[in-house]
């Protein structure tokens, strides 16, 4: 019986071992990777558009730089190809006046003599600009054909200077006299035997005619060198006086009428009294940029005062009369003063002579 139990136990043990072995042989399935891939389509699209935009910008920039460079080169070429008279510089009026003195003398004065005419033409050509192409021969521009008298320059003065793109037009008021022969018929008394009779005969007399005109001279310059760019011409003298109205800014401002006006007017009386009598260095305590008449004139009175309030203080406009000390001849001047105030004391920040 014991043997049967032992066999039974052994069978059970072998059965369990077999089951365990089979379980070990079974392979566990690997876990599947359940990670979901990210959606990168938006990033790809953004990158693509950025790249295209960058390429487009670089292309446009390249075109603009190319056009600009070409434009600059063309401007340089055009500038270098411009004739001399189109590159007019800012002219020195004083130097040009000195240059034109001899030209005006040569141009206006004309003597009815072949040698004088040829000499005049030769001298005038020395003042003219040299051109490669002309509308007419240079030898013809000062040709005088058919003249019947002389022209004599009396006086001249610079009247105006008008700036142009290609030249500066110098306008001189010239007074000259034309001398010309006139044939007249005169009556003479001659002897006819023992009697006298009157006869008519023709004689030539020189007459004069004075004129005043504007001589217009186009002038070009290069540095300190000058040249007349075209043949001068005459025009009538025009009036320089004009009907010009200047708007007074004070009309748009309200004049100060406050309690400080009296003290400002008293300060101005004291200030201009010292301005007339004191030296420049003595005015330091009253004004920022000192100036004074050093007792050369005598202070008379302030005829008119207008005061306006500003952000920094006050602005005063006044008419001041000074006098010559010896003979009391009055001298009137307009002033404007920018004033600041400190503890009731006024100080002239700026003084202007109007």
In short:
The chain is of the alpha+beta class. It contains five helices and nine strands. Pfam families: TpcC.
Question: Would you kindly provide a written description of the structure presented here, covering whatever features stand out?
Answer:
This protein is of the alpha+beta class and 354 residues long. It has 2 domains: 93-235, Nuclear Transport Factor 2, Chain: A (Roll), CATH 3.10.450; 249-353, Nuclear Transport Factor 2, Chain: A (Roll), CATH 3.10.450. It is built from 5 helices and 9 strands, in the order H-H-H-H-E-E-E-E-E-H-E-E-E-E. Strands 1, 2, 3, 4 and 5 form a 5-stranded antiparallel beta sheet that branches. The radius of gyration is 52 Å and the shape is flat. 10% of the residues are buried.
Write the layout of secondary structure elements.
Blueprint: H1 2-25, H2 41-81, H3 93-108, H4 114-125, E1 150-163, E2 168-192, E3 195-222, E4 225-228, E5 233-235, H5 261-277, E6 297-309, E7 314-324, E8 330-342, E9 345-353
Antiparallel strand pairs: 1-2, 2-3, 3-4, 3-5, 6-7, 7-8, 8-9
List keywords for this structure.
Nuclear Transport Factor 2, Chain: A, 5 helices, 4-stranded antiparallel sheet, 354 residues, 5-stranded antiparallel sheet, 2 domains
CATH topology of the largest domain: Nuclear Transport Factor 2, Chain: A
Number of domain units: 2
Order of helices and strands: HHHHEEEEEHEEEE
Range of helix content: 25-40%
The best one-word shape is flat
How many strand segments?
Answer: 9
DSSP helical segment count: 5
